Amino acid sequence: MSETPTAASAPPPAPGAEEYVALDFVNSAVALPGGHSMDFLGTPEATNRWLTEHGLAPADAGVREMCAAQLRSLREHLRSLLAARVEGLPALPTALAAVNDALSKAPTAALLYWDEKNGPYRAAPCPTDQILGRALAALAADAADLLTGPDADRLTNCGSAPCNRYLLRHGRRHWCSTRCGDRARAARAYARRTQAQVDAQADAQTQSQARED
Questions:
Q1: Taking the C-alpha atoms of 92, 96, 97 and 101 in order, what is their torsion angle to the nearest 10 degrees?
Q2: How many other C-beta atoms lie within 10 A of the C-beta of residue 11?
Q3: Is residue 82 in some structural domain?
């Protein structure tokens, strides 16, 4: 069941998300306990809000469903590449092609402009019809920097099921939030108690059989 994201229900950014917007991007679809999920790109309005909050689009960009769908598609390709990096597997060619296509959607060279007061300056153009392309390119470039940089060795997935978020590991921490850490510790404690009960029952049966023999 999908929930509508709100400021109160949203989990805090995963470690590393403040350094890499692409990490927050791939984590914008969150799996929650009880079969629930939360998608910050689930609607055009939500997508526009996420882009605005991350400085990738103005609040009045008017994102349409077609644009939101393109962003969700790139998100899945990036998740595939992060998973391949974490698990030490080859990358899917389709995912690489999608990222490289996104990288080509924005010019790399800043153009020359001339201000009447301050004279010449350079800036990257961003007309309204290029907002999506620039957002896709920025997210793809940030993900490429993460995957090819030294922080890639710290990349891991959250160790608390069913959470599907990625993070940059600090020390031995493998959880994306305190909430997930508490849930993982509770699950381990429950597993230990259950195993202790099973072992106790097995010992009791063994002793009972020994007495009968």
A1: 150
A2: 18
A3: yes
Cβ pair 48, 63 in contact under 8 A: yes
Q: Which long-range contacts (CB under 8 A, 24 or more apart) does 59-66 make?
A: 61/128, 61/131, 63/132
Q: Is the pTM of this model over 0.90?
A: no
Q: How confident is the model over 22-72, as pLDDT tens digits? A: 999 999 999 888 888 999 999 999 999 999 999 999 999 999 999 999 999
What CATH code is carried by the domain that includes residue 74? 1.10.3300.10
Would residue 205 count as lying in a domain? no
Element (H, E) at 210: helix 178-212
Q: Structural domain tally of the chain?
A: 1
Range of the domain at 117: 2-176
Q: How far is residue 178 from each of residues 110, 125, 169, 170, measured CA to CA in Å?
A: 42, 41, 14, 13
195 belongs to a structural domain: no
Position of tokens 């350094």? 19
Three-state DSSP class for residue 154 = helix
